[in-house]
Backbone:
């Protein structure tokens, strides 16, 4: 796509008009007015990098920095609502997220550096639609919903169906992501794991699992992976295989085999397709083992 | 467009272009050249500054987005001739080689110690993950931060 060594990353070589709305309503009006020519800017950790590379050249930038109403974490009787403008660092610092949605917390915590998490937002991570977006697999296994707003009102889409391809989501050009809703799954055992080249890199492969057990039987489970297909994906065939089975190394190995068959990895700078398939098996086994231990200790504690 | 913000405690008004970055405004318009340009894509931390008290990468912040806010750079830490504790510790531990990464490290370390005055070595290493030192003097950098925190006693 681009060669970092041939780009002057010192500047943003794109001319645009800058807008700084203070309310969501104003932001939506601007998006409609410049339909298709505008991009919203949150932390800029994806957008400005892409603009430096000229991978994106919007003629209008709508900065959401001043739109305070997008920044919140609210727990109610059904689940948690996280504003799209909530910074990753705020989520990382929430004890309640750590406690109730450990896989999301684990994913947020490994994103970039302290500086990146201070700038980057949950909405930006999802709307950027990288196949490796770390918050996606946990949100998918928790059954989270994206709350989208636009001139035609509000609609809700499951995070699982939010992505259409690399850099592409179900958002129309005049729509915004307002919030992510995650229903409580306090009775599940859940975990997020990822492999990287160095700790600051994005994932070669990532996995999130949420599972429910009765004694040693897996009563239900959800499995989602990142960086192994054009979008983050769920593996229904492995979930189906595991439902009703007793947890054992053998069962998990068979499930891992299904996962490695059903992902569609490519070979790129970070890893080979072969390695991604091989390690998907191991990660499936590890993730379920941890989820099972967590489920047990939740029940005990 | 004109923006107004507080830089190291002083109100500044500057004329900026929409596509100008905070880093370039600091260095080229306000002549605060302590903050360094390394990679420009968020990987190295050389451009770290405090924005409203929190560490961010000035190579990925539009100057326009800083309107009305507060920025602290490496130049803002010393009180007159008196260096900040973190700066002193870097000098004393020999944590500076070519010095290019140093302002970014010190700002990041400052932020760590404001959040967590008694970090463990592991916590220090985790927090400075986004700062790279091309001279690879990490051992002394970690020691300096622990020293500033009072975890390593002052050598006489
Ligand atoms: C050095 C570095 C390391 C990184 N490491 C990781 C990592 O380990 N894991 C990972 O997943 N990511 C990583 N990232 C990517 C990035 O930091 C995250 O994806 C971050 O969450 C993006 O959020 P942002 O607020 O900065 O988004 P922005 O860059 O502001 O926006 C990203 C995109 O989403 C759109 N957008 C933002 N908010 C909305 C909204 N509310 N509605 C509609 N569209 C919206 C923007 O128009 C833009 O197209 C890294 C980035 C860098 C530079
Ligand atoms: S110059 Fe900003 S992170 Fe490298
Ligand atoms: S001292 Fe030279 S880059 Fe760190």
Residues:
């Amino acid at each position: 796509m681009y060669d970092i060594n041939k780009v002057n990353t010192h500047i943003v070589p794109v001319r645009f008009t800058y807008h700084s709305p203070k309310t969501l309503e104003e932001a939506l009006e601007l998006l409609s007015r410049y339909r298709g020519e505008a991009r919203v800017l949150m932390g800029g950790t994806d957008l400005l990098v892409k603009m430096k590379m000229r991978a994106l050249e919007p003629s209008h930038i709508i900065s959401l920095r001043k739109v305070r109403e997008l920044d919140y974490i609210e727990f109610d009787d059904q689940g948690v609502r996280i504003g799209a403008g909530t910074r990753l660092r705020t989520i990382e610092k929430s004890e309640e997220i750590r406690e109730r949605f450990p896989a999301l917390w684990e994913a947020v915590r490994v994103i970039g550096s302290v500086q990146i998490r201070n700038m980057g937002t949950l909405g930006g991570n999802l709307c950027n639609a990288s196949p490796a977006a770390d918050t996606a697999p946990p949100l998918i296994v928790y059954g989270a919903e994206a709350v989208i707003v636009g001139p035609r009102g509000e609609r809700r889409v499951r995070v699982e169906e939010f992505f259409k391809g690399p850099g592409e989501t179900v958002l129309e050009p005049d729509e915004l992501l307002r919030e992510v809703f995650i229903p409580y799954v306090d009775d599940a055992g859940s975990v997020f794991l990822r492999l990287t080249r160095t700790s600051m890199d994005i994932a070669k492969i990532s996995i999130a699992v949420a599972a429910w057990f009765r004694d040693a039987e897996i009563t239900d489970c959800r499995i989602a992976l990142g960086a192994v297909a054009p979008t983050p994906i769920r593996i229904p065939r492995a979930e189906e295989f595991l439902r009703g089975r007793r947890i054992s190394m053998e069962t998990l190995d068979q499930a891992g085999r299904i996962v490695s068959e059903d992902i569609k990895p490519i070979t790129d700078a970070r890893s080979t397709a072969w390695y991604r398939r091989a390690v998907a098996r191991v990660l499936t086994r590890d993730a379920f083992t941890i989820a099972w231990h967590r489920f047990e200790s939740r029940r005990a504690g | 467009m004109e923006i107004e913000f507080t830089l190291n405690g002083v109100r500044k008004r500057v004329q900026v272009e929409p596509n100008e970055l905070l880093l370039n405004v600091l260095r080229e318009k306000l002549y605060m050249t302590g903050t360094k340009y390394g990679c420009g894509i968020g990987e190295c931390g050389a451009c770290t500054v405090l924005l409203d008290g929190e560490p961010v990468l000035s190579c990925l912040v539009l100057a326009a987005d800083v309107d009305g806010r507060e920025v602290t750079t490496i130049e803002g830490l010393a009180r007159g001739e008196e260096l900040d504790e973190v700066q002193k510790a870097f000098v004393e531990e020999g944590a500076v080689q070519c010095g290019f990464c140093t302002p970014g490290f010190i700002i990041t370390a400052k932020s760590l110690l404001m959040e967590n005055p008694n970090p463990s070595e592991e916590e220090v290493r985790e927090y400075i993950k986004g700062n790279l030192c091309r001279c690879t003097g990490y051992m002394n950098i970690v020691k300096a931060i622990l020293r500033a925190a009072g975890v390593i006693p002052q050598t006489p």
Chain A has two domains: 69-183, 189-300. Residues B 96-102, 133-135, 137 surround FE2/S2 (inorganic) cluster (ligand 3) (CB under 6 Å).
